[in-house]
Amino acid sequence: MNNYKIEILDKICYTELVFARINKKLSLQLSKEKIIEMIDAIILETNEEQFQKEGKNIYITNKEKNIRLTINSYTNRIITADQLNKLKEKTTNKPTK
Q1: d(Cα 5, Cα 56) in Å, to the nearest integer?
Q2: Is this structure's pTM higher than 0.85?
Q3: What radius of gyration do the chain's Cα atoms show?
Q4: Of 7, 81, 94, 95, which alpha carbon lies 20 to 30 A from 87's?
């Protein structure tokens, strides 16, 4: 079993655009430093069993914080953060074909 938590915490990186994306998706207005602190805390607090690798991404789901982080497994770059309740709304409101 891979220990994604240690590797991600050691190597996580951010692009300039991801800070605005995280603020927008989580309806926040945090500084870059506060976003980094928040992401690190979420990763630290999340049980390793909630780290799921699918394809090139690792999804970190923290139900207590109502958040899911998406991290590229090759670069350890954070891609986005989503509120779980909004993800659930999107999947339940999909139109049927």
Answers
A1: 16
A2: yes
A3: 14
A4: 7
Per the listing, tokens 């909004």 go with 86
Cα distance between residue 7 and residue 79, in whole Å: 16
The pLDDT value given to residue 2: 78
DSSP state of 77: B
The Cβ-side half-sphere exposure at 83, using a 13 Å CA radius, reads 10
Best CA proximity match to 58, nearest among 66, 44, 45, 68: 68
Amino acid at 61: T
Range of the domain at 32: 4-92
Residues 6+ apart with CB under 8 A from 27: none
Domain tally, the chain = 1
With respect to residue 48, please indicate whether it lies within any of the assigned structural domains: yes
Tokens linked to 48: 């390793």
With respect to residue 72, please indicate whether it lies within any of the assigned structural domains.
Answer: yes
Q: Give the mean pLDDT of 28-45.
A: 98
The domain that contains 73 carries what CATH number? 3.30.2310
